[in-house]
Amino acid sequence: MKILIVHNDYGKYSGEEAVVDRMIEDLSRQGFEIKVLRRTSKDARDTLGGKIHGFFSGIYSISGRRMMRKALREFKPDVVNIHNLYPFISPAVLPICRRKGIPVVMTVHNYRLICPTGLFLREGKPCENCLKKVDEWDCIRYNCEHSRLRSLGYALRNMMARRTRAYKDNVDLFCCLTEFQKQKLIAAGFDKDKISVIPNCIEYVEPQETPLPNCDTDYVGYVGRLSEEKGYDLLLEVARRHPEIDFRFAGTPRDDKTIVVPSNVKLCGHLNSRQLARFYADARFIVVPSRCYEGFPVALLEAASHSRCCIAPSHGAFPDLMTDEESGETCGLMFKPLDVDNLEKKIIKLWNDRTLADELGSKAENNYKKRFLSEKVNTSWNNTLHQIADNK
To answer: In angstroms, how far is CA 105 from the centroid of its own chain?
Structure first.
């Protein structure tokens, strides 16, 4: 079976890119013939011309449509798997697939089908205005992207997709990462019979033996982009209050800005897969302090694969992802979203009780093995793609 995977890379390598790359490898190993239609946003905002191009192509990309026609004509796929279309591919490519009679499966990584920014976040707090109003005006009104041009462009491209029903009429199946995502799509008017849930997955990677620079061992760990929606600043505040505890951050700032940290915090920068495995193994536990709901934070799985538990906010899909479906037990600690004092209490509790941290780490590992192993998730994708192709 031939699968055309379509994705517009972000400006910096992200968790979504990692998932796409892993999916390409996994499907190839399963015997699928894969072709990738891929564009990138790297350096797109560095020039005025790039910004203008991104603004208009997100609404309707002529070059994206041309590339899609060429890929369909030359590769003749059985299924098209869509990931991110913005800004240089755009939803304008979807009707082309429908007219050719080729089924489209969309992997839903975030909330961009409903919210122009994809985060359900405004002024550092969860916001569902665009879901409740079923329009995009508030993205412009509140300048959700902290840039009038970007906020306008994001709102217009979502408005175009919604009014033309680009997604609802041309995507055969939406594959959400969590049940939480699925329910949000249903609330926004998407057909529940066209939505399934297939979670992210990872494969275990052996840690390196060589110590990582600036990381040491036995610390509170954070993995992810250092940006507002990720809530890293909440964790920094806890670190400032507790100089007796070491904190380590694996990741880079969103816009390469300089981040001032206290002496008990070390920034380890971007780590490759084996370095990251060592980072998890050397941490006592991991904190995922997200201000936003998140799509599916892979850090939860990576930590669990190394028997490390997480502290995460009690919103979005976090409670479900961190709960053992059979026992109903939580495989980590939950804190009240955005509440630094409550986050502090959870961190101190787990730091002072290593036995509890180890017990929760074992439970997290068991939950990961039962629900999120690559073999299980890949089987789901295999069955889904064959079913969609056969039904067409």
So the answer is: 17
Dist CA 281 CA 171 (whole Å): 41
- C-alpha to C-alpha distances, 94 to 166, 185, 195, nearest whole angstrom: 7, 18, 17
According to the model, what pLDDT value does residue 217 have? 86
Give the homologous superfamily in CATH for domain 2-201+374-391: Glycogen Phosphorylase B; (3.40.50.2000)
First to last CA, the chain: 13
As a whole number of angstroms, the distance between CA 135 and CA 366 comes to 42
pLDDT, residue 170, reads 98
What is the largest distance, in Å, between two alpha-carbon atoms of the chain? 63
Do 136 and 159 contact (CB within 8 A), yes or no?
yes
Centre a 10 Å sphere on the Cβ of residue 50 and count the other Cβ atoms it contains.
14
Angle at 230 between CA 226 and CA 234, to 5 degrees: 85
- Rounded distance, CA 85 to CA 58, Å? 8
220-371 CATH, one of 3.40.50.300, 3.40.50.1970, 3.40.50.620, 3.40.50.2000:
3.40.50.2000
What are 126's strand-pairing partners? 121
How much is the pLDDT for 151?
A: 96
What are the average pLDDT values for consecutive 10-residue runs of the chain, which has 392 residues?
96 87 94 96 81 92 98 98 97 98 97 96 95 92 94 96 97 98 97 97 84 85 95 98 97 84 95 93 97 95 96 97 92 98 98 97 95 91 94 79
- pTM, full prediction: 0.93
How far apart (Å, rounded) are the C-alpha atoms in residues 269 and 272? 10
